[in-house]
């Protein structure tokens, strides 16, 4: 006779353990790797959520099927070991895929920001970084850098960019963000220009800047390009860094 009470208790315990592991992984991904709004902008966490959802559903369901108190402890250990390996394997796959698509740099290049993903930086390009700080991709969230091409390398950089290896994907050209602050201020445009160009931006800006502690006279905007298209970045002209991002393509 099936003891459903024991089965449901085992299933509940399995669900709690699975949910705890998923919550730990989600905290790292959504609080560190994909700070808001990058999880919306890039969408790289979608696969992870799918994998975790499957883990939460299938793991406990398998527990409901295999658990039987009349089985020997050895048989139960084997059953749960197989389920655990499958679940952990799926979770690791989701985490590593999400890690490869995470934003690692927000690079100011020419007249806009570029979102650089971990998977876009090849080992060869990382090894050629002139500054040792840029020879490894960061794991603690996206960092701000600027891109500067020396005059003697501009032709090579242009040819490489035409073939798809753009300047912001080559850490050899990375310099500290603060070194280009004056150039960022020159390139940044008043918010009024964006509002005139894109009337829909007014409501988006109001929503994005709720609670912002930066005076409006210090705010400007720059385009921001990511692998899926363009957004607009609201910039604090004192620091040159974005204080908000809005889902608005300034070129469309």
Helical coverage, percent range: 40-55%
Order of helices and strands: HHHHEEHEHEHEHHEEE
Largest beta-sheet characterization: 8 strands, mixed
First-residue to last-residue Cα separation: 66 Å
Total count of domains: 3
Radius of gyration, taken over Cα atoms and rounded to an integer in Å: 24 Å
Q: Uncertain spans, ≥5 residues at pLDDT below 50?
A: none
Total helix count? 9
Shape: elongated
- Number of E strands: 8
Mean of residue pLDDT values = 89
Structural class: alpha+beta
Query: Strand portion, in percent?
Result: 15-25%
Write structural notes for this entry.
β7 and β8 (242-246) form a beta hairpin. Helices cover 47% and strands 17% of the residues. The model has no long low-confidence stretch (mean pLDDT 89). Strands 1, 2, 3, 4, 5, 6, 7 and 8 form an 8-stranded mixed β-sheet that branches. α1 (4-33) packs parallel to α4 and α3 (46-66) packs antiparallel against α4 (73-100). The chain folds into 3 domains: 4-100, no CATH class; 103-186, no CATH class; 188-252. The protein has 252 residues and is an alpha+beta fold.
